[in-house]
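Lecture notes, part 5. Sequence design as translation. It can be helpful to think of inverse folding as translation between two languages: the language of shapes and the language of residues. The source text, in structure tokens, appears below.
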């Protein structure tokens, strides 16, 4: 199993000036949820310049489709990313989900309005706000998200009231 290293992935994306928003488990952790996640979920802007930056950031780390049979032809390049939307990948730095189409948000620009710039892993990074993260988890409708959804809602309630855990 490839070790998960969100900071290295985030730093590589930032170094290549990728426009992205952190969602999923890493965003939940930023908001104070103490739960392990095994991948970095990001929503990326779908412009030619940004797609080029995504490829530049990740290609040196041998990205491959997560769960695909070994040997299946796959190359992360500008053409591939331009023709697709969502890519669940493993790399030498761990797992990353590159998302352009997610339940609960139309696209990067819509999600940007519901995100906040924070320092993460030594970089300035857009992270989805807690209320929107809850909405995204609810919209995904996956069984595995229900437990996390309940914890995020409790975290929001605690933040709203100022109560301690």
């Amino acid at each position: 199993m490839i070790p998960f290293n969100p900071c290295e992935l985030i730093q590589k994306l930032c170094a290549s000036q990728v426009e992205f928003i952190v969602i999923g488990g890493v965003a939940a952790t930023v908001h104070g949820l103490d739960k392990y996640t095994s991948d970095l979920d990001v929503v990326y802007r779908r412009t030619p310049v940004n797609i080029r930056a995504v490829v530049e950031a990740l290609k040196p780390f041998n990205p491959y489709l997560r769960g695909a049979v070994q040997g299946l032809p796959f190359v992360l390049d500008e053409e591939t990313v331009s023709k697709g939307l969502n890519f669940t990948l493993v790399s030498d730095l761990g797992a990353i989900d590159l998302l352009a189409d997610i339940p609960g948000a139309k696209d990067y620009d819509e999600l940007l309005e519901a995100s906040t710039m924070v320092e993460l892993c030594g970089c300035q990074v857009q992270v989805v706000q807690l209320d929107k993260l809850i909405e995204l988890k609810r919209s995904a409708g996956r069984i595995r998200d229900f437990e996390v959804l309940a914890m995020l809602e409790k975290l929001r309630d605690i933040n709203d009231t100022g109560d301690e855990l």
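The translated text above is only one of many valid answers, since several sequences can fold into similar shapes. The first strand starts at residue 20 and ends at 23.
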